[in-house]
Amino acid sequence: MEAVIADIRHELAADLDGAFPDLVRSRQDRIFSGVLRMVRHHADAADITQETFIRAYRALGGYEPARIEAMSLDGWLWTIAINLCRNRGRSRSPVPATIPEQPDRSVGPEELALRSTEEARWQQRLLALSPAQRAAVVLRHVVGLGYDEIAEATGRPVGTVKADVHRALTRLRRMVEREEAT
Amino acid sequence: MRIEQALSELATTAPATVLAGVMVGTGLWDEYAVFAGPTEPVIVAWNRRGVTACVPLSAVGEEAAFPGRHPRPARKAAAVPRRIEGRLRHALESGRLGDLPVDLSALGDFQRAVLEKCAEIPPGEIRPYGWVAAEIGSPGAVRAVGTALGNNPVPILIPCHRVVRSDGRIGDYAYGTQMKRDLLVAEGVDPGAVEETARRNVRFTGSDTTGIYCYPTCRHARRVGETHKVEFHSAAEAGSLGYRPCKVCRPAA
């Protein structure tokens, strides 16, 4: 894992245009998976994933090779992604904490299908968390980032991130238990 | 542990549109569409930085064949984006690039210098390959100039059809001599008259009232009345008779 990361940074530093498609291919699934759990709409998640890489490309173009070689790429990419998620959240209506009784006509068939599954229930549980807890637990357990990378991405101390992940897991566990009890 | 496991299973794959969207958005992939050209439809490709290709549709055959001959990945677009469309139309109609952004960043320094120089030639005027070579400070590189222009990724927009053989004949064109002649006719040059002048070994024309000599298609040369027009076989001949080179067309030896 470490070797792969070091390698792509080296390639990006030497030939940004040549290596950039590989960066996208190697990380788009993880970025998309994480973003999808932080925003409500599938189309928003695709947009944000796309925009994250476009912004990353523009930023990398202005960096010295030595700076690229020394970067924590995943933490940095997630800094961009999380900012975009936050901005998107502000321009959207608040997220409902429970599944609405009436079908939501603002969502496409893809999302309606998703809602009938176990995955949709997880989506709803995650959306019931505070943004900070949700970001921390999604980055830790859906994306698989380390605590220091999450700290970099969210701009919060490592200790706070660990506490957020712990609290989020506790809340999710309670939600599952409550659902099973009813 | 059950929670962590369930969360890790939420990982999924990104839609295929993401990679293509990123590549187009960064300018690493181009987009292309068909557009009306001065003599026939052209295929135009562009990225974030500007236009990267402009080729006659007839030279490609069909639209679907374009990506195969474009040097970078290209995705078909519904239309030319608005930020480019007006300037592109104006460039094709006026025969001048104007403020149309053209992305030549994939080219080498020499070819870029040749094409930038070529773009200065106004519509309705022609210059020899040797003029381009001299103007970019490589007077010996006439053949290389021909190669650079022959591989012009944005013909018509960067008017390589306005560069002709140093003996005055119209010469070759990447899409055939006939298209070169048609493009020149469309902007008011008479290729027959140009070649007739060349056959008589006339390279420059001057005015006996101003004492200045030009390339025969220079806008200043065309203004000279027949009674005051003088013809020269070489710059040396014009110079020996006391004529000085025009500061606009800058005739090269």
Task: Provide an overview of this structure.
The complex is a heterodimer of chains A (182) and B (253). Chain A is mainly α and 182 residues long. Chain A contains 10 helices and no strands. The termini of chain A are far apart. The model of chain A is unreliable at 93-104 (pLDDT under 50). Chain B has 3 domains: 2-94, Double Stranded RNA Binding Domain, CATH 3.30.160; 108-200, Orthogonal Bundle (Arc Repressor Mutant, subunit A); 202-253, DNA Methylphosphotriester Repair Domain (3-Layer(aba) Sandwich), CATH 3.40.10.10. Chain B has 12 helices and 10 strands. Chain B has a 4-stranded mixed beta sheet. In chain B, strands 9-7-8-10 form a 4-stranded mixed beta sheet. The interface between A and B is medium-sized, with 33 and 21 residues.
How are the secondary structure elements laid out?
The complex is a heterodimer of chains A (182) and B (253).
Chain A: H1 2-14, H2 16-38, H3 42-61, H4 65-69, H5 73-90, H6 109-115, H7 118-127, H8 131-143, H9 147-154, H10 158-181
Helix pairs in contact in A: 1-2, 2-3, 2-5, 2-8, 3-5, 5-9, 8-10, 9-10
Chain B: H1 2-8, H2 16-26, E1 30-35, E2 42-46, E3 51-56, H3 57-60, H4 66-69, E4 74-76, H5 82-94, H6 109-118, E5 127-128, H7 129-135, H8 142-150, E6 163-164, H9 177-186, H10 191-199, E7 204-207, E8 212-214, H11 219-223, E9 229-232, H12 235-240, E10 244-245
Parallel strand pairs in B: 1-4, 5-6, 8-10
Antiparallel strand pairs in B: 1-2, 2-3, 7-8, 7-9
Helix pairs in contact in B: 7-8
Short characterization:
Chain A is mainly α. Chain A has helices at residues 2-14, 16-38, 42-61, 65-69, 73-90, 109-115, 118-127, 131-143, 147-154, 158-181. In chain B, 36% of the residues are buried.
